[in-house]
Automatic annotation (TrEMBL), chains A, B:
SUPFAM superfamilies: Winged helix' DNA-binding domain (SSF46785). This is Putative transcriptional regulatory protein,ArsR family. CDD domains: HTH_ARSR. It holds the Pfam family HTH_20. InterPro entries: ArsR-like_HTH (IPR011991), HTH_ArsR_DNA-bd_dom (IPR001845), WH-like_DNA-bd_sf (IPR036388), WH_DNA-bd_sf (IPR036390). It comes from Mesorhizobium metallidurans STM 2683. Residues 1-92 form the HTH arsR-type domain.
DNA sequence: TCAATCAATAGCCATTTGGTTATTGATTTT
DNA sequence: AAAATCAATAACCAAATGGCTATTGATTGA
């Protein structure tokens, strides 16, 4: 019942987690250590957030020795954009209906 | 510290609440009773969701006798679109940097 | 006027969530 | 080989969240 869109919205809802994702978008690939250094929370907390971001498809990880590098997967934002324009579309459709109605009333 | 964007993401995170907003987008203005009839939760629960949606600027209410009509405020989605394209922008900027680097290496 | 209806609020409860510290497994470094 | 470092996992906890029932206030209908 809980689809990909639900997961996406829920994952992006937390400000700390979104900040981590934003940083990966702005600055590209980062290690867990680098992300922890500026997140203001503990390393395990950061790892947990990264795990959720990965489950949502928003980041991917790359292991290199004992470090793990994470990077943003921008494509994962597509459902978000789709949803937004879908909502905008409904709104416009209703606006057009109203316009038609007014046009008919005018005649 | 908790800005409008935070509120927006947090408000849209819950599937039930988002479904209510979607319905208002698709079908236009609805009363609390109409929304409750298909939400699968109690009237007070629906009212609570509507209260949060209103706080986020996603809906507005209109009182008419003892009924309250709610409608979607599409403009409130702008920060969401802005954020998404901002993220996409960062990604592209880094892509360009990479492209430049490769071009320089090629010479 | 009295009963019925509509929506908001109050008060409560179970679950989820985001954080912590402690530990473990794996890889480097000395 | 032993010590140090990095990131994931485990176990726990407090706070936030989303739901419920009961109630209230306001409006409408009989």
């Amino acid at each position: 019942m809980t689809n990909a869109r639900d997961v996406l919205f829920r994952t992006l809802a937390d400000p700390t987690r979104r900040a981590i994702f934003e940083r990966l978008c702005r600055q590209g690939e980062q290690t867990v250590g680098a992300l922890t250094a500026q997140a203001g929370i503990s390393q395990p907390a950061v790892s947990k957030h990264l795990g959720l971001l990965r489950q949502a498809g928003l980041v991917r990880d790359r292991h290199e020795g004992r470090q793990t590098h994470y990077s943003a997967q921008l494509g994962a934002l597509a459902p978000l954009m789709d949803w937004t324009s879908e909502m905008a579309g409904f709104w416009e459709a209703r606006f057009d209906q109203l316009e038609d109605l007014l046009k008919r009333m005018d005649q």
